[in-house]
User: Which sequence fits this backbone?
C-alpha cells in the first residue's frame, strides 16, 4: 500500500522537540493538578504521616547526635517522593491505557521518548513540591533545624535516586488495569515503605522486618535521605548499587509487560 | 488470525478515498497498517515514500481513530493546543476548533463532552496540524444529523483545498457523498475499487417487495435477474436492475402475487448484495 501527496511547500518537516517537550510537560502538570485524588494526596499524606509518626519525637536526638526530627523528616521525604513516582506512574499509565490515550498518541508525531520524559519531569516537579511543603512543615511546626544546604542535599539525593520507583510505577501501570492499579500500588508501596523503616525507625520494628529491610529498594532509598542528615547506615555507593539493580529489575518487568500489551493491541 | 489478504492499494495526493465495508471487513486493520500502528506480516507500506512510523511522515498526517481516547481533564482548547505543538506548521487553534464545530465548547473540559462532540474533538485533533493527508476511521460514528452534515461540509472543503483524505465507513451513502473513489473491502480483500458512479452501476438499483396468497418457495425465484434479499412465509424481497423483467417472469410462472411494491433500493441493501459472497465459496 502506498499513500503519497504532493511535496510540501517550504515549511519545516518536523516540529521542534524542545517545544514539544515543554508543551507536553505543561499539559501533564495541569492534568495532574486537576485530579485531586492525585494532587491532594501527594501533598497531604506525607505531612499527615509526619504529624502522626514524626512530630511527637521531632525534638529528640539520636545517640550519635543526629536530630531525630531531621531523621524522621528524611524518612517521610523518601516516602513522599517514592509515592509520587509509584502512584503517579502506576495509576497514570494504567489510566491512560484504560482510556486508550496511548492508541491515539502512537499515531501522532510525538516521539514516545518525549512523552515519557514529559511524565518524568512532571513527576519530579510534583515530588519537589511535596518535599518543599513537607520540609517547610517540619521546620515551622516541628521545629526541626538543619542548614539549608542539608535540605537542598536531601532534595537532590531523593529526586536523583527516585528512578527505581519510576520503573516500579511503569511496571504496575503496564501490568494492571485502571481499576486494579491503585490497589496494587498501595499494596506494594505501603508495606514496602513500612518494612524499610520509612514510617518508623527500623530499631522499632520486629526482628524479621529488620532482617528483610536491607534487601528492599525503599530501605536503600531511605539511606539517601538519612545520609543527608548524617545518619546513613551504609556507604552511598552501596545504596546506589542496590537502587540501580532494582531499577534494572523493575524496568525489565515493565518492558515485558509493555511488549505483551503491544503484541496484544497492535500485533 | 488473518485480517487482510493481498490488499494492494496506491493513493495519490489530493484523492479522497472511502474504504467501505461491513464491520470486521478489515477497514480498521488497513488504516492501522497505513499508519504504522500495526506491522504487516508480509508486504510493505509507504507513506510519502517513507515508513509510516517515521516522524517526518507522521508530521504530515492527521489521524482520527476508532476506540482511542484522550485525557478528560483538559479543555478542548488546551488539548488542541497540545496537539498543535506536535506539528511543524499547525493551523490556528481557533480555526481547527471552528472547523470541527466546537467553538462554543472550546473552554469546556473534554470529560463533559457528549459522544458526538467528542468525535468532533477527535476531528479537530486530526486537522489541527494542517496535515496533507487525513486518515479517518469511522469518523461519523456517534454524530447526529446536524453534526454529520457539518462534518461532510468540512471534508469537502478540505478536499477542495487539495488535502488527501482516506476514511472508512460502512455507509455507502456517506462514501458516495464525500469520496471520488470507493474501495470496497470484505473479508480482508478488496472486492471493488471504483468511482461512486461505477460502483452504483454495478449494484442493483431497485427493490421489489412481494406479498403472496400462499407461502413462497425458494424455487419461485430461481434464475431470475435478481438477488433474493429475504423470503419469509408469504413475504419476499428482491434486488434487481430490471424489476419489470423480474415481475413479467414471476407472473409467467404463475406465482400468486397478492401485493407488490417496487422502490429504489436502499443503498445499504445494494451494498450488501455486492459484498455477499457467491454461494459456492461459502
Assistant:
Amino acid at each position: 500500500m502506498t499513500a503519497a501527496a504532493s511535496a510540501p511547500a517550504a515549511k519545516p518537516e518536523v516540529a521542534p522537540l524542545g517545544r514539544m517537550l515543554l508543551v507536553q510537560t505543561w499539559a501533564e502538570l495541569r492534568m495532574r493538578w486537576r485530579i485531586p485524588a492525585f494532587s491532594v494526596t501527594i501533598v497531604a499524606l506525607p505531612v499527615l504521616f509526619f504529624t502522626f509518626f514524626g512530630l511527637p519525637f521531632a525534638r529528640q536526638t539520636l545517640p550519635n547526635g543526629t536530630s531525630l526530627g531531621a531523621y524522621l523528616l528524611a524518612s517521610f521525604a523518601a516516602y513522599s517522593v517514592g509515592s509520587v513516582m509509584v502512584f503517579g506512574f502506576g495509576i497514570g499509565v494504567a489510566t491512560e491505557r484504560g482510556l486508550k490515550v496511548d492508541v491515539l498518541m502512537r499515531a501522532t508525531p510525538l516521539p514516545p521518548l518525549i512523552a515519557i520524559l514529559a511524565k518524568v519531569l512532571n513527576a519530579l516537579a510534583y515530588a519537589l513540591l511535596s518535599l518543599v511543603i513537607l520540609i517547610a512543615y517540619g521546620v515551622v511546626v516541628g521545629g526541626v533545624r538543619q542548614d539549608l544546604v542539608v535540605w537542598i542535599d536531601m532534595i537532590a539525593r531523593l529526586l536523583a535516586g527516585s528512578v527505581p520507583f519510576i520503573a516500579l510505577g511503569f511496571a504496575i501501570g503496564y501490568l494492571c488495569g485502571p481499576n486494579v492499579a491503585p490497589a496494587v500500588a498501595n499494596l506494594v508501596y505501603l508495606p514496602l515503605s513500612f518494612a524499610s523503616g520509612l514510617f518508623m525507625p527500623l530499631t522499632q520494628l520486629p526482628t524479621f522486618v529488620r532482617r528483610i529491610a536491607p534487601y528492599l529498594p525503599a530501605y536503600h532509598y531511605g539511606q539517601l535521605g538519612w545520609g543527608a542528615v548524617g545518619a546513613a547506615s551504609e556507604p552511598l555507593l552501596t545504596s546506589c548499587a542496590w537502587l540501580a539493580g532494582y531499577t534494572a529489575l523493575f524496568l525489565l518487568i515493565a518492558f515485558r509487560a509493555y511488549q505483551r500489551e503491544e503484541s496484544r493491541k497492535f500485533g | 488470525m488473518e485480517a487482510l489478504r493481498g490488499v494492494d492499494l496506491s493513493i495519490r495526493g489530493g484523492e479522497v478515498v472511502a474504504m467501505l465495508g461491513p464491520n470486521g471487513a478489515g477497514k480498521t486493520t488497513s488504516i492501522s497498517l497505513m499508519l504504522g500502528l500495526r506491522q504487516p506480516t508480509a508486504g510493505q507500506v509507504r507513506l510519502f515514500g517513507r515508513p509510516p512510523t517515521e516522524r517526518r511522515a507522521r508530521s504530515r498526517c492527521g489521524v482520527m481513530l476508532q476506540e482511542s481516547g484522550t485525557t478528560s481533564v483538559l479543555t478542548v482548547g488546551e488539548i488542541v493546543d497540545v496537539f498543535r505543538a506536535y506539528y511543524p506548521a499547525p493551523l490556528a487553534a481557533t480555526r481547527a476548533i471552528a472547523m470541527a464545530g466546537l467553538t462554543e465548547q472550546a473552554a469546556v473540559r473534554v470529560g463533559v463532552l457528549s459522544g458526538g462532540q467528542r468525535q468532533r474533538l477527535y476531528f479537530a485533533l486530526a486537522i489541527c496540524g494542517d496535515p496533507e493527508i487525513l486518515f479517518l476511521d469511522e469518523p461519523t460514528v456517534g454524530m447526529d444529523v446536524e453534526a454529520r452534515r457539518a462534518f461532510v461540509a468540512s471534508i469537502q472543503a478540505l478536499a477542495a483545498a487539495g488535502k488527501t483524505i482516506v476514511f472508512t465507513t460502512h455507509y455507502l451513502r456517506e462514501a458516495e457523498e464525500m469520496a471520488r473513489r470507493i474501495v470496497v473491502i470484505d473479508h480482508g480483500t478488496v472486492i471493488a475499487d471504483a468511482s461512486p458512479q461505477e460502483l452504483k452501476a454495478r449494484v442493483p438499483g431497485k427493490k421489489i417487495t412481494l406479498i403472496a396468497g400462499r407461502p413462497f418457495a425458494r424455487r419461485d425465484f430461481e434464475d431470475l435477474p435478481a438477488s433474493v434479499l429475504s423470503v419469509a412465509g408469504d413475504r419476499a424481497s428482491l434486488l434487481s436492475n430490471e424489476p419489470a423483467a423480474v415481475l413479467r417472469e414471476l407472473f409467467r410462472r404463475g406465482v400468486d402475487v397478492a401485493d407488490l411494491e417496487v422502490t429504489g433500493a436502499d443503498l445499504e441493501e445494494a451494498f450488501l448484495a455486492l459484498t455477499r459472497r457467491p454461494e459456492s465459496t461459502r
Q: What stands out?
A: Chain B touches chain A through 57 residues (CB under 8 Å). The first strand of chain B starts at residue 10 and ends at 11. The domain at 203-276 of chain B is CATH 3.30.70 (Alpha-Beta Plaits).
